[in-house]
Design goal:
mainly alpha, 3 helices
Length: 95
């Protein structure tokens, strides 16, 4: 897919980016190249290829699931302006 200068200007407008006029040609070429690469990659046959979470086929290191903080709920609710049945009461903001 080849982009035009008008396409790049429209993309920049939608992305709220300011592009100098002299840079539009290089952006057009670079973005067209990226889209062409995506088109080529989309046409690649991936039948029989197993999805991987990591390109190095490594397992993820997980931390131990243990409590590391004490329960401060009562301390926090003691200084809250309004609490009822263990819940914080806040002003209604939506009708």
């Amino acid at each position: 897919m080849t982009l035009t200068a008008d396409d790049v200007k429209q993309i920049a407008h939608l992305a709220r980016l300011g592009i100098d006029q002299q840079d539009i040609a290089s952006y057009t070429q670079d973005l067209s190249g990226m889209l062409e690469l995506m088109t080529q990659m989309g046409g690649t046959n991936t039948d029989g290829v197993m999805p991987m979470a990591h390109p190095m086929d490594q397992s993820q290191r997980l931390r131990v699931d243990e409590v590391t903080e004490s329960d401060n709920r009562n301390n926090f609710q003691a200084i809250a302006p309004q609490v009822e049945d263990g819940l914080y009461l806040v002003p209604k903001v939506i009708e």
